[in-house]
Amino acid sequence: MRDVAIVGVGLTKFGERWEAGLKELMSEAWLSAMEDANISRDDVDMLFAGTMASGRFTGQEHVAALIADQLGFSNVPAVRVENACASGGTALRQGYITVASGIHDIVVVGGVEKMTDVTSAEASTALGGAGDQEWELFQGITFPGLYAMMAKRHMHDFGTTEEQMAAVSVKNHENATKNPYAQFRKKMTISDIMESKMVADPLKLLDCSPLSDGAAALVLAPLEIARKLNDTPIKILASTHATDTLRLAERETLTGVKAARIAGEAAFRHAKLTPKDINVAEVHDCFTIAEIMAMEDLGFYKKGEAAKAIAAGETALNSKLSVITSGGLKGCGHPVGATGVKQAVEITWQLRGEAKDRQVTKADIGLTHNVGGSGSTAVVHIFGRTN
Amino acid sequence: MRDVAIVGVGLTKFGERWEAGLKELMSEAWLSAMEDANISRDDVDMLFAGTMASGRFTGQEHVAALIADQLGFSNVPAVRVENACASGGTALRQGYITVASGIHDIVVVGGVEKMTDVTSAEASTALGGAGDQEWELFQGITFPGLYAMMAKRHMHDFGTTEEQMAAVSVKNHENATKNPYAQFRKKMTISDIMESKMVADPLKLLDCSPLSDGAAALVLAPLEIARKLNDTPIKILASTHATDTLRLAERETLTGVKAARIAGEAAFRHAKLTPKDINVAEVHDCFTIAEIMAMEDLGFYKKGEAAKAIAAGETALNSKLSVITSGGLKGCGHPVGATGVKQAVEITWQLRGEAKDRQVTKADIGLTHNVGGSGSTAVVHIFGRTN
User: What is the mean predicted confidence (pLDDT) over B144-148?
Assistant: First the structure.
């Protein structure tokens, strides 16, 4: 297995991109990443594209071949991967495996979702495809409902409060104000969150990530080649992936995501690191409770202790551990297929020292955590500087 | 890179399986494959599931995690891949790469599609996602229309006739009568085909593959491990994948599929074989013209010569080269995500000598050819006996 590095990153602005379709979003992100990596289309050996529900959102499947066509890649293998909201993280891991194995050298990994051309109800139904259609969605539950049950149980078991959840949203919106790619660049207060409309008790509108259009892309290369392309290759120190039951009702616990715990433990083991070594992390905050559980699943906090710590500011920008400097799914937006890739883009910028207004002072080691469904899929990556 | 073998295969009956959903179809195929390989669920290290449009057909995305859950695999990585009608072949190639690279040992690869719970019009729209939504489907073309244009040009350039195309259908229906898994087990005559309803001139109903429900699965292992599990491992001699423009209008030619030519040439080169070495092949006969082009793209015949040869019986069961012994997409059925995997199941049975009524006398080397869209993706595999 070879060492693998990120040598180029690209991102679109997230939001309601009514002027752009799938092709425009993908081109914007992918061409930026290729320019950043100093490569041309003829250098690309293979590509992976993560998208969750392009068929239901836009009618378009076969998205990897579409992007290969759109960018004029010459006949290279192109694979779409789909693992619900973890499609982007999955694409990154498949790209990592491809380069690490020695099969291909230059692999472009992207993620995209175009969600705002359908009604909110249609979008909600499409996103429901991440859970068990027959046993969950058909019975009337939605994703805010699933996460609301996890939140209720977390509150019951650990005394987690609605105000603590709101504090997650406030932090991520604060960081989003510093990110030019973010969908929402407006500060929010605890009372803004608490007074927003109830979606699924106890989760309010501002506890939930939005519908977004957007794309993100990464260029991967073997570390040896990376050093010739770029002064600041970011090395992938671990890439792990685990699953759990699709149905929330069958999990061992409602207050954590076992797949994330497994993937997280494996990632730290492979990287020979511990949670204490991480300086900056992008975790999957599809709902505020999800970030609280993520911080516990990954071992940053003991079970039941993350909510209080986040509310006390321990994970704010330039604290001991800066969590979700991008603004996250909540503040930056959540074009589902793009999210896992965008997390790695943000960490790359932080580790290169290119994150501008939101740059973390010490950023040597970063982590991403991308979850699909209510916790059926989890993909974790750890990244390190090489200079 | 390690040698990789198929050590277990499983298949469902194809057809209108109104009693079975995605879960039942997948379980039926996957459990058969695991039983055939003498492995239990705890032996599985990773899985890939190919499905094209499960979201639009059933509402269900996240299909790889669903099957991992359904079969009780314990937290292993699960990845859905989607490349339109080449989703199954793509899943096989990703599985092959995973085992060959040494990352995982036992990898299960499956494909599934549940197509008959929606109307034919809805199915046609969903399948249109394989082409360019904005520049092809939105303008009113359908897949029979795209292949009809290829057929018209093939007729114009090479004198290919409608009767010769009908002969492809007659051959595949004949073989399907010998396959208990086939959707249609009825002999057809040239006049049956010629007199069937026109769909898109010159393609008639019986030139076209049907809508089908079905699933297929394979267990892959490194060859060394395979020999311990099974007396008849089938070695993967080549696994190749190429793309071309998504839009038919932008291709170099309408009378062939460049991606298939590139993947085919690479496969023969990797396997150090020529088309003459192949005893049995499953090619992608989504429409009769597609099989004619496949035989030319893969180098079995010179451009313009395949139609006459097929009509003369040169590729019938137990002729020099037996093509589509399963009955193919036309006779056996075409649950799109399952097709590429099912092709490999059929070749495995032939190479093991287990194809019963449709067994080819000499079956040492086999080939599969799986196409996505109107030729934007092509995946080719070559397989050999090891005993």
Answer: 98
Is A85 a known active-site residue?
yes
- Name the amino acid, one letter, at B165: M
Q: Where are the beta strands (DSSP E) in chain B?
A: 4-11, 46-50, 78-82, 107-114, 198-200, 203-204, 213-222, 234-243, 280-282, 322-323, 365-372, 377-385
Q: Residue B127: which of B169, B82, B167, B171 has the closest Cα?
A: B82
pLDDT in tens, A26-79: 999 999 999 999 999 999 999 999 999 999 999 999 999 999 999 999 899 999
Q: Which two tokens stand for residue B216?
A: 């297929």
Distance of CA B1 to the CA centre of its chain: 25
Which band of pLDDT confidence, cut at 50, 70 and 90, is reported for residue A356? very high
Q: What is the 3-state secondary structure (H, E, C) of A68-105?
A: HHHCCCCCCCEEEEEECECHHHHHHHHHHHHHHCCCCC
- Residue among B85, B208, B286, B332 flagged as catalytic: B85
> Which tens digit of pLDDT belongs to each residue from B74-116?
899 999 999 999 999 999 999 999 999 999 999 999 999 999 9
Q: Is B367 helix (H, G, I), strand (E, B) or coil?
A: strand
The C-alpha atoms of residue B50 and residue B47 are separated, in whole angstroms, by: 10
Q: Is the confidence at residue B1, as pLDDT, over 90?
A: no
Domains, chain A = 4-119+212-234 (3.40.47.10), 135-209+237-385 (3.40.47.10)
Catalytic residue flag (residue B381) = no
- Position of tokens 């500087």? A385
Shortest CA gap A191–chain B (Å): 36
The 10 Å CB-count burial string (b at 16+, else e) for B335-370 is bbbbbbbbbbbbbbbbbbeebeebbbeebebbbbbb
* Eight-class DSSP state of B88: H
Interface of A with B in 304-333 (CB under 8 A): none
Is the entire prediction scored with pTM above 0.95? yes
B73 vs A: CB within 8 A = yes
Contact B259 A75 (CB under 8 A): yes
Of B76, B90, B133, the CB nearest to A58: B133
Residue of A79, A130, A246 with shortest CB distance to B90: A79
B130 contact residues in A (CB cutoff 8 A): 61-62
What is the arithmetic mean of pLDDT over A202-226?
98
B334 bridge partner residues: none
Question: What pLDDT, on a 0 to 100 scale, did the predictor assign at position B78?
Answer: 98
Instruction: State yes or no: pLDDT of B283 exceeds 90.
Output: yes
